[in-house]
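User: Teach me something about this protein's shape.
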Amino acid sequence: MHYILYSKPGCHLCENLQAKLTQLQHPIDLEIRDITTRSDWFAAYEYEIPVLVAVDNNGQMQNLPRLSPRASVAQVEQMLQKYAPNGSE
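Assistant: First, the predicted structure itself:
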């Protein structure tokens, strides 16, 4: 499973989520996309960031539910496990 985090510089919520994603017990394949580098990303996510998207092996993309900024690393990991195909990454 591949994950994409849509973010932008100076977004504290984005930085907070990114930090939690790097602290997971089971490391994930994470790509950070700066929405200020492409107009289509900016138009889609300007008011929504951070947006975490799961990409399966077939290239299907699914926006994951937005977590509270207060969510713990364990809660982030639980959410990823819940939405991973077949309950695994």
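Now, about its shape. The chain has a mean pLDDT of 92. The chain has three helices and four strands. If you'd like, I can walk through any region in more detail.
User: That's plenty for now, thanks!
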